[in-house]
Design a protein that fits this description.
Strand content: 5-15%
CATH class of the largest domain: Mainly Alpha
CATH architecture of the largest domain: Orthogonal Bundle
CATH topology of the largest domain: Arc Repressor Mutant, subunit A
Strand order of the largest sheet: 1-3-2
Number of strands: 3
Low-confidence stretches: none
Structural class: mainly alpha
Helix content: 55-70%
Shape: globular
Radius of gyration: 20 Å
Number of domains: 3
Order of helices and strands: HHHEHHEEHH
Length: 166
């Protein structure tokens, strides 16, 4: 199995480390998975980040969420969450309101139109994800999830330690 990525990207020299090879494999695989999802979402004129925000707001329910809370829950960080919300609001997929007691707080909520839009794409996305990954089987997928969560936990730990030192 080892060396497949090296051939795919036509790299003549071996990777500097097994960690580099694993990282680049992860990036290459994530890109392939995300391109297929992006293609499906493009049909309804949504980006992955916009779809993610709509799902987050659906999960938040009637109270909605402030901008910072949405950003914390994003699967992939978006540096300009405000502009992302602007585009969703312009399409009437979300509404934003200012808190009466603290005008600095703006709460976003999904609209009925937003709910209808994401409901219509859920089944196709589920089929897509199953088609992409079901061949691995539940046991390997569970192991993959565990490994990815372990890697992320280590990254979070290193980031926290760096912040404490500064």
């Amino acid at each position: 199995m080892s060396g497949r990525l090296q051939r795919e990207i036509k790299q003549s020299h071996p990777f500097a480390s097994v960690e580099e090879e694993a990282y680049l494999n992860l990036r290459r695989t994530a890109d392939a998975l995300m391109r297929a999802e992006a293609s499906l979402l493009k049909r309804i004129d949504l980006s992955g980040a916009q779809y993610n925000v709509l799902r987050i707001l659906r999960g938040a329910g009637k109270p909605g969420l402030a901008c910072g809370e949405i950003a914390e829950r994003m699967v992939s960080r978006d540096p300009d969450i405000t502009r992302l919300l602007d585009r969703l609001e312009a399409r009437d997929l979300i509404v934003r309101t200012r808190d009466a007691s603290d005008r600095r707080v703006v709460t976003s909520k999904i609209t009925a139109k937003g709910l209808t839009l994401i409901k219509g794409v859920e089944q196709p996305l589920t089929r897509l994800h199953r088609g992409q990954l079901s061949h691995l089987g539940e046991e390997k997928l569970t192991a993959l999830i565990d490994l990815l969560e372990l890697a992320r936990a280590q990254l979070n730990s290193v980031t926290r330690i760096r912040k404490e030192r500064t």
